Amino acid sequence: MLTVQTPAKINPVLEVLGKRPDGYHELALVFQAVGLYDRLTFEKKTGGVDLRVESPAGLAADDSNLIVKAAKLFSREILKSSDGVQITLHKKIPLAAGLGGGSSDAAATLRGLQWLFEVPVSEQKMHQMAAQLGSDVNFFLNGGTALGTGRGEMITPWKASAPLWVILVKPSEGLSTPAVYRSGRALMTIGDRVRELQKVWPEGSPASIAGHLFNGLEPAAFYLRPELKLMKERLMAEGALGVLLSGSGPTLFALAAHEKEARKIAAKFEGEGLEVVVALTVSTGVQKV
Ligand code: C5P
Fold first, then answer.
1. Active-site residue, 22 included
2. Phi (first) and psi of residue 130, to 5 degrees
């Protein structure tokens, strides 16, 4: 039996560069892993893939789950037909949040099966399978901090910054990624925001990094869900150094100067039906525990 943990992510910068002929958007985005983890266990069995969801209740454990898709893909491309696996999922990363939870679980499944069966698979092959599963999956294979280009699946590692204190605030209602992209309200930029962040990363203070946050999907998400803009203003008024939509939302992340400040800000948002998490950025991806 093998247990792994796999982190959530935020995007300090997400630039939409243009629309592609294949319907996807060309992106330049920075991924940063955050210490909020899903846990997956893997056990060998004969033939087939079984997923058991320990939490949350109601999450589909069938072929629509990206974990099952990842396990079947790995099995088809790498394993012998007699090899099967029992997977158990314990989720902490909120669903449909813009925190990459589903993608992180998919990457954890690819790594988990690679480690469980001790089969030699090249990193190029791991990345090729990850890209088939979704645009964010590649990042989580190694995690930490990285630049994503193309659909987001082409990964260039960046050095880690000093750990940053982050407050994640997620409204109960999710937001559909395709709806955000389709709204026609994304702000297109030319890659300059990534370059500006790169100048202050990794040595920059939390305040200087906060001054370079940018997400071209924010106007689209704020158009679809105006209450998110009000929430951002409230987080700033409570003392956050900077606040940004995470990925395609609806989670907002706020940067705080230190832990005490982060917990003070988070406390202001408790008891409102929101999911509020205080976490540190981390320099890892999928890991054995
Ligand atoms: O790749 P993934 O399955 O995560 O993408 C989900 C949806 O998000 C896509 O179907 C597309 O509508 C949108 N998307 C996009 N451009 C990207 C990534 C995602 O338009 N680079």
1. no
2. -60, -45
Tell if the pTM clears 0.85, that is, is over it: yes
Q: Which ligand 1 atom is the nearest neighbour of the CA of 152?
A: 21
Q: What is the pLDDT of residues 162-212, one digit of tens each?
A: 999 999 999 988 899 999 999 999 999 999 999 999 999 999 999 999 999
Q: In the structure encoding, which two tokens stand for residue 279, read together?
A: 């976490």
- With beta carbons less than 8 A apart as the criterion, state whether 104 and 253 touch: no
Residue from 215, 127, 193, 112 nearest 136 by CA: 127
CA distances (Å), origin 57, targets 52, 88, 95: 11, 13, 12
Q: Whose CA is nearest to atom 3 of ligand 1?
A: 134
Please identify, by atom number, the ligand 1 atom nearest to the C-alpha of residue 181: 20
Alpha-carbon distance of 253 to 256, in angstroms, equals 10
- Told to judge if 264 belongs to the known catalytic residues of this protein, a careful annotator would answer no
From the candidates 91, 105, 136, 232, give the one annotated as an active-site residue: 136
Rounded to the nearest angstrom, the distance between the alpha carbon of 24 and the centre of ligand 1 is: 6
Q: What does the alpha-carbon distance between residue 192 and residue 213 come to, in Å, rounded to a whole number?
A: 12
How many A from CA of 172 to the centre of ligand 1? 22
Each residue's pLDDT tens digit, 120-171: 999 999 999 999 999 999 999 999 999 999 999 999 999 999 999 999 999 9
SS3 call for 187: coil
